[in-house]
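Troubleshooting: if your tokenizer reports a length mismatch, compare your output against this known-good record of 338 residues.
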Amino acid sequence: MWRELSRTVAPITRHISATEHRLELITGGVIEFWSLDDADPARGRKYGRVIVDEAAMVKNLADAWQLAIRPTLTDLAGDAWFLSTPKGLNYFHALYQLGQDPLEHEWASWKMPTSVNPYIDAAEIAAAQQQLPERAFAQEYLAEFLADGAGVFRGIDAACSKSPQDAQQGHYYVMGVDWGKLNDFTVLSVLDANTRQQVALDRFNQIDYTFQLERLMLMVERYRPTAIVAEKNSMGEPMIDHIRRRGLNVWPFVTSNASKAEAIDNLSLAIERGILSLLNDSTQKSELLAYDAERLPSGLLRYGAPEGMHDDCVMALALAWSAIAHSTPAKMKVSFGA
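Known-good structure output:
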């Protein structure tokens, strides 16, 4: 890229430093190149734009962006572009998902398969499709993000096919609540206990806790859930107390490595066996696809989202499913407000 750009801007270059990989232009602009093999590039500089090429191949991209690159954009209120062929569900995938999230207003993302490039012969693409394995062609030519096979959830595409539904007379509903902390989102996930189907999903952040409760109550009024399973950790306990004071049946969920593993295992099994059907929601689907497990020195698994991603939708769904998985039909018929 250095050689190509050096040739391209040669007619307007005032000074070139091959050692520093720096181009000074007659317009007053400056272009500098950095290698992200260095974990701390460009510290102390000021840029109006940063372009990260082949971002999916950069090791420790999250640290490079958050600790080194992002601060260089502050003085000039600059922007950043991340360009790459996908490579698994890594931090580049997390950044792409930010651009697809309607609640992340500062981000945008696009998928550009090779076929949109007017300079590449369509016959060459067709030949590559014949010669390459399906996964390789999907990643390299169709710009598809592919899981590396180590994901926790299987059968997600088949499960995520439903549209939101209104409450049905005679049906019983449960709600899972994962409270937002710092930059996380509060997520409300509602399941129909009769059909084993997700019928509603609400996701929001950066609103006062009072309004979070009111938003929850709107969902309660729509579905009148027999049980609400809500995370108790941190801010969860006072929120649960507020809900109980409104006469609702709340099951507190204390999140630990063991309790989280059990909830995720139950959810994973239900999805893989086709017992549970989910909404076709892009944010929730991306969280499920990227969700991962890390083997601890003790031999136990620690579940969570990859670096830079959220797992709020996954946890709210797991909490809602736990109410169904641990309930008998008689228990599901507890009257509203018990």
